[in-house]
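Quiz preparation item.
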């Protein structure tokens, strides 16, 4: 059992709602279930290892981009209200790993482009958030959140970075 002072299920539902407004992306029920599970694990401090097995072109990258954007924008703001989330006050550090760079680019570029949308800029400009992209070509936000995409093949050296959340694409091809 994870002890937080708030109802993690209720807050997860509200974060999902915010994400839909931020991204403007309607999720299918199975994508929403994936997003819910990841967000719940993060805010409840559960730290679970979550696996997904989805067919090609089923919307996995879209669901991950949704979660990445939602948590990157919102968690630093929520840390002001929930002491348990204080570790995110200076941003959310996200690592995105895949065996080949092409596999990283899909999710990375989708998340980055969603934050460059006029709707997202308007939401992020809210006085309670006041966050924007540092540069249009790199996933770094002014609230300290960032995402780094790295190749995680058998030959890669992926040490030296610290992340709050790690996503591994095509995990079956990543060396242990």
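Solution:
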């Amino acid at each position: 059992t994870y002890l937080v002072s708030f109802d993690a299920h209720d807050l997860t539902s509200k974060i999902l709602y915010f994400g839909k407004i931020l991204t403007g992306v309607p999720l299918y029920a199975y994508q929403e279930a994936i997003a819910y599970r990841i967000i719940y694990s993060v805010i409840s401090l559960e730290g679970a290892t979550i696996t997904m097995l989805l067919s090609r072109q089923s919307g996995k990258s879209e669901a991950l981009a949704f979660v990445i954007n939602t948590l990157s924008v919102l968690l630093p703001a929520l840390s002001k209200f929930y002491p348990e989330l204080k570790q995110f006050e200076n941003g959310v550090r996200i690592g995105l790993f895949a065996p080949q760079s092409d596999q990283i680019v899909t999710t990375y570029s989708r998340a980055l482009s969603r934050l460059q949308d006029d709707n997202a800029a308007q939401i992020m400009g809210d006085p309670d958030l006041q966050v924007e992209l540092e540069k249009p070509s790199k996933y770094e936000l002014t609230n300290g959140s960032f995402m780094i995409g790295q190749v995680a093949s058998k030959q890669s050296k992926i040490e030296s970075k610290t992340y709050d959340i790690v996503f591994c694409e095509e995990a079956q091809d990543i060396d242990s």
